[in-house]
Write a structure and sequence with these properties.
Elements: E1 21-22, E2 34-36, E3 46-49, E4 53-59, E5 62-67, E6 71-74, H1 80-83, E7 98-103, E8 107-112, E9 117-121, E10 125-139, H2 142-152, H3 158-181, H4 194-209, E11 214-225, H5 228-243, H6 247-260, H7 266-279, H8 289-292, E12 299-301, E13 308-310, E14 330-332, E15 339-341, E16 359-361, E17 368-370
Parallel strand pairs: 1-3
Antiparallel strand pairs: 2-7, 3-6, 4-5, 4-7, 8-10, 9-10, 10-11, 12-13, 14-15, 16-17
Length: 383
């Protein structure tokens, strides 16, 4: 039986030789494209057909006839003009046929790929795509529909029909993507080309679905899902394009955003901005410890001009400074003790100005103490 399990078929009393009146009850239609009458049809049975359905008679692997006009059809010798060729199969007791009811209205279905589509992109290499969405369809030829799904595919439920439709639509979407790809489509172009893909699928649908007696009316909500790492890379590239920055500048900006979320990172952030403005356009931010954690593997700071340069650079591309470790000189911050480039104007860790004297000499005993000390630790003299 197709669709949900039905109760006993309603029939009218006083019928001839156990004949009944058959109708597809409304409460059993929702979500089902068709329903098989759970008994063979006999002479003198009555078939009730409503406006939104078709009754199809099927026997020996093929369709005999179908009724697509609303009304009650009595299978007797008295309505030969209505029943027509069907009477030939009801002339004896053993001449019996099956009846399938079909929906005539437009129905909604969902599709999704079980196996990924491998898209080869010049930038990202082989990317596994998965697609999902919704579609609208309608049975256009009841006879062809039953011959294909019942006679050829031996479908047993409405779910079997929708499964085949779903697989066919996924295949058409993959075909459409492949055709568009031949014109130079890249993975980053897919979101903007979804309407084009939809129209391409609808253009291919008639030649693929008419053989099943089906029309595909519409694709809606088509969605192409990318792997998380590829989606993140595409989002990053899009943001870089909007901001007009390169990768190093983007990384520096992201580090600043991360630092702004950390209350302990504001001091270093302010100092870094001062150096950055001198170096130009966001390239000279002096990173504090928390800010450098995300980028220290790829970049470092030029000790001469403060620019952020690739970690493997031998010379600074901004000022030409020798970036080899033997030439990099560092000093200790008098306030926090951090090792910083000797040319730094501010400590990137605590913001301490580095251009003022770092020590003060006691006028009494000559002991040098860090700048800011109020009393000499040697003799107690006020400084």
């Amino acid at each position: 039986m197709f669709g949900k399990k039905s109760k006993e078929i309603p029939y009218s009393g006083g019928s001839v030789a156990g004949s009944i009146t058959i109708a597809w009850e409304t409460q059993f239609k929702e979500g089902n494209s068709m329903w098989k009458v759970p008994r063979l049809i006999r002479l003198n049975d009555n078939i009730v057909v409503r406006e939104d359905e078709t009754a199809v008679f099927f026997r020996d692997g093929k369709v005999l006839t179908y009724f697509d006009k609303p009304g009650r059809y009595a299978l007797t010798d008295f309505n030969a003009p209505v029943v027509g060729e069907l009477l030939k199969f009801f002339s004896g007791v053993q001449q019996q046929a099956e009846v399938y009811y079909l929906q005539r209205r437009v129905m909604d279905g969902k599709y999704g790929s079980e196996t990924p589509y491998q898209f080869t992109d010049p930038t990202f290499g082989v990317v596994n795509l998965r697609i999902f969405g919704e579609y609208r369809w309608q049975i256009s030829d009841p006879g062809q529909f039953i011959n294909q799904f019942i006679g050829t595919f031996n479908a047993a439920t409405s779910a079997d029909v929708e499964s085949r439709l779903r697989d066919q639509i996924v295949l058409l979407i993959y075909t459409a993507i492949g055709k568009i790809k031949e014109s130079g489509l890249k993975i980053t172009d897919l979101p903007a080309n979804l309407p084009t893909i939809e129209q391409a699928v609808l253009g291919l649908a008639p030649q693929n679905f008419q053989q099943y007696g089906i029309n595909i009316e519409k694709l809606q909500g088509i969605n192409i899902s990318l792997p998380d790492d590829v989606q993140k890379a595409i989002d990053t590239r899009s943001e870089m394009s909007v901001l007009g920055v390169n990768y190093l500048q983007y990384q520096a900006g992201q580090a600043m955003v991360d630092a702004s979320k950390n209350p302990n990172g504001f001091a270093g952030l302010g100092a870094g901005m001062g150096v950055g403005m001198g170096a130009g356009a966001g390239m000279g931010y002096a990173m504090s410890g928390p800010m450098m954690q995300g980028t220290q593997q790829q970049t470092r700071i030029c000790p001469k001009c403060g620019s952020i340069v690739p970690a493997n650079s031998a010379f600074c591309p901004n000022c030409g400074n020798d970036m080899r470790e033997s030439s990099v000189q560092t000093v200790k911050c008098p306030k926090c003790g951090a090792n910083i480039p000797a040319s730094s104007k501010f400590c990137p860790e605590c913001g301490q100005p580095m251009s003022v004297p770092t020590t003060v000499k006691c006028p009494k005993c000559g002991k040098e103490s860090p700048t800011g000390t109020k009393f000499c630790p040697e003799c107690g003299e006020k400084l």
